[in-house]
Amino acid sequence: MSDVRTGGCQCGRIRFRAASLKDNPHVCHCRMCQKATGNFFAALVGVPHADFQWTRGAPAEFHSSEKARRGFCRDCGTPLYYRHEESQHISMSIGAFDNPASIPLNYQLGMEGRLPQMDQLPDLLHYGATEESMPEEAEEIRISNNQHPDHETSIWTPKA
Fold first, then answer.
1. How many other CB atoms are there within 10 angstroms of residue 47's CB atom?
2. Which helix (H) or strand (E) holds 108?
3. Which of 12, 40, 88, 152 is the most buried (most CB within 10 A)?
4. pLDDT tens, residue by residue, 96-129
5. Do the beta carbons of residue 74 and residue 61 sit within 8 Å?
6. Cβ(80)–Cβ(69) under 8 Å?
């Protein structure tokens, strides 16, 4: 994977650039990743340190274990990465990229922590797009949205 990609946190105070990605996009179901993301799993992809740079702001870090760090935006709380101090890459949250759909997954791990709710997903009711199923609420969200857009901006000041 060799396309230059950008991304950042929800509020836009932290932005990054990845000149390449490792061939390891995956989800991890381990309990530590669940807690770090507040979700069923963490979706991560490695970026070699030499191909990575912060372009706006700097993340805060939590030492989730002796040699591992979890990075996040101290302002909006967006989980941004997992970093092992002995690794040659940083594992970025796929959802923090501006175009996460362009990063297909290759595998999953941490299966001992995989939650049973994952098996329910194919059978859940589908309500469609928020704009279609909740047009009034979607318009209210659009008007009051403080989220950084999914592209680079030279200046960004969230409304909040």
1. 24
2. strand 107-109
3. 12
4. 999 999 999 999 999 999 999 999 999 988 777 7
5. no
6. no
DSSP track, 25-70: -EEE--HHHHHHHTSS-EEEEEEEGGGEEEEE---EEEE-SSSEEE
Cα separation, 78 vs 86, whole angstroms: 24
Q: CB-hemisphere CA count at 13 Å for 20?
A: 9
Rounded CA separation 122/117 (Å): 10
Residue whose structure tokens are 């030499």: 50
Percent of the chain with pLDDT over 90: 73
Q: Is the pLDDT of residue 2 over 70?
A: no
Nearest to 156 by CA among 4, 6, 10, 5: 10
* Residue 12 binned pLDDT confidence (cut-offs 50, 70, 90): very high
Give me the pLDDT at residue 8, please.
96
